[in-house]
Amino acid sequence: ARxxxxxxxxxxxxxxxxxAVMHGQALIAGTRVPVSVIxxxxxxxxxxxxxxxxxxxxxxxxxxxxxxxxxALAREELxxxxxxxxxxxxTRTCPSRRPASWLPPGMTSIPFPASS
Length: 116
Prior knowledge:
116 residues, two-stranded antiparallel sheet
């Protein structure tokens, strides 16, 4: 069975962050393409081939590294969801309703564009 819960060292080497570049966002190393853009493309249903065609500086391995990085982050933090299983709506007793610590102050969830 393949182990799917590890970001390899090779994949992490493909991700960079520098406070002087793109406000410190996680980027595909050697590019100015944020990991979040690649994850948005994947979420929109684009294939690795479509993503690399749209962003020629990104390789298929870079797309996989971005996906692995995003998956690792998802294992670390729960985001508030509208269909929470918590009862009263209290953020004190419901971890999934607490604002994610990395969101800007006052922001409690990530807005997703409406699908067309």
